[in-house]
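Key result, reporting period 2: structure in, sequence out.
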């Protein structure tokens, strides 16, 4: 296929947290608000003159300083984020909106508060205590946390308009971005898609780390380009897989899988589009704030949720992706030392394979792609098993 016009530009934007578009927005007097987790409503961080940027640590290979403060037996993602903060990589941030998604995540956010590594005037850290269930009681608690730790600081410390009108405007702008990214991703459902999983991974990431209004024109142009793009004469992959798991913010991981012959047709992981690019609907008689909180608690499929309803939802949504995107199997990933996804990987892969007949490959990895040889061997063997299964059908 012909190269996408903006792909190299998108790839370059992912080389630094303080990328070209972030620098442009900050230079215009806008306030960059960092966050790490879907529990923090992305749409709210784009109120007024603020813009959201989901924190990554691109090209971080050895988080030695982060390890000193957090020990070696904690999630390498959060250690890498702390490392990059100490290196000065997030000095463009006006605030970090954190979530106690896990003990390691909270510890990293506390270190950003205690060590003061981010050198930005009046920088502050605020952390919500997110619920572990999805019922009405927990929705009320979630709304109280969002109000106290997100809206109040934005209004009082940053001077942001958090009115009903401002929220409705933010929802409309967010939905435009979500619809554009989703429309690009929908092409992966085709038997011979005019886009690869790697390309979509890059597109999804830039939509999360760049100011929405500045990246949206590029995304719209890319959507128009993909609509007219001619795919390869023959589907170039040997299998189709759904990739599910924890933090995956390195497109080279998707490229590795596709280099082994399996196209990643759906991205059900932290930093992926499922969930994150669903549009927000305001129901009749509902305030914008209520709609936002309801939306994010409903679509959140974090392995941290322990109640049966949310566990079943995770499995149902994954089965739906397998069917809609015509996947032959699922790759389950968890970040090393991630307790929640370690448990989820074992349980869900058993349910998918034993109860639903969907082949699964489970792997554990570091934040940085170090042991690519081992992963490549696992993926190649999995692709071969999917091919053998097809021959036997």
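The corresponding designed sequence is given below.
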């Amino acid at each position: 296929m012909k190269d996408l016009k903006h792909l190299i530009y998108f790839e370059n934007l992912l080389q630094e947290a303080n990328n070209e578009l972030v620098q442009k927005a900050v230079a215009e007097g806008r306030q960059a608000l960092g966050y790490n987790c879907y529990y923090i409503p992305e749409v709210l961080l784009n109120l007024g003159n603020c813009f959201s940027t989901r924190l990554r640590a691109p090209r971080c290979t050895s988080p030695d300083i982060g390890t000193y403060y957090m020990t070696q037996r904690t999630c390498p993602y959060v250690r890498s984020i702390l490392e990059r903060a100490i290196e000065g990589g997030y000095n463009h941030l006006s605030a970090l909106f954190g979530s106690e998604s896990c003990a390691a995540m909270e510890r990293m956010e506390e270190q950003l508060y205690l060590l003061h590594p981010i050198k930005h005037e009046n920088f502050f850290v605020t952390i919500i205590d997110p619920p572990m269930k999805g019922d009405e009681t927990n929705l009320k608690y979630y709304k109280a946390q969002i109000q106290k730790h997100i809206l109040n600081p934005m209004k009082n410390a940053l001077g942001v308009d958090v009115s009903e009108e401002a929220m409705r405007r933010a929802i409309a702008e967010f939905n435009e971005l979500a619809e554009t990214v989703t429309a690009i991703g929908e092409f992966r459902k085709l038997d011979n898609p005019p886009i690869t999983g790697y390309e979509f991974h890059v597109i999804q990431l830039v939509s999360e780390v760049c100011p929405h209004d500045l990246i949206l024109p590029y995304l719209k142009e890319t959507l128009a380009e993909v609509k007219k793009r001619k795919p390869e004469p023959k589907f170039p992959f040997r299998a189709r897989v759904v990739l599910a798991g924890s933090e995956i913010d390195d497109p080279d991981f998707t490229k590795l899988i596709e280099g082994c012959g399996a196209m990643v047709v759906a991205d059900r992981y932290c930093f992926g589009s499922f969930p994150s690019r669903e549009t927000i609907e305001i129901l009749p008689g509902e305030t914008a704030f209520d709609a936002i909180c309801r939306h994010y608690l409903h679509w959140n499929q974090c392995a941290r949720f322990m109640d049966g309803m949310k566990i079943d939802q995770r499995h149902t949504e994954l089965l739906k992706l397998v069917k809609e995107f015509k996947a032959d199997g699922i790759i389950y990933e968890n970040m090393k030392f991630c307790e929640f996804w370690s448990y989820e990987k074992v349980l869900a892969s058993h349910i998918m394979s034993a109860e639903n007949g969907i082949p699964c490959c489970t792997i554990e990895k570091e934040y940085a792609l170090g042991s690519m040889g081992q992963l490549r061997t696992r993926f190649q063997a999995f692709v071969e098993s999917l091919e053998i299964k097809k021959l036997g059908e």
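Residues 26 and 192 are 41 Å apart (CA to CA). The two ends are 31 Å apart (CA to CA). This case is discussed further under Risks and Mitigation.
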